[in-house]
Amino acid sequence: MATKTINFTKSIIEKLPSPQTGRAYYKDLKIKELALYVTNKGVKSFYVRIRVNGKDEKIIIGNFQTN
User: Fold this and answer.
1) Burial class (CB in 10 A: 0-12, 13-18, 19+), 53
2) Are 17 and 5 in contact (CB under 8 A)?
């Protein structure tokens, strides 16, 4: 699935749909390293993708929480 670029705001992230299967990926418009994925169970997790010693690394920051 292709990664979509969106503006990460609370209201936009809350409205993101869960995919039928797998994960849907989104990148932030303002911070290019920041990304988010949504699982088919509705879990939304932030991560950054950076290069460490020439190797691509994905570092999970944590889940999106609504109150």
Assistant:
1) exposed
2) no
Q: What is the pLDDT at residue 67?
A: 67
Which residues are paired to 49 by β-bridges? Answer: 58
Beta strands in the chain (DSSP E): 4-6, 23-28, 34-39, 44-52, 55-63
In whole angstroms, what is the distance from residue 4 CA to residue 27 CA? 6
DSSP β-bridge partners for residue 6: 28
Using one digit for the tens of pLDDT, what is the confidence trace for 42-67?
Answer: 999 999 988 999 999 999 999 998 76
Alpha helices in the chain (DSSP H): 10-15
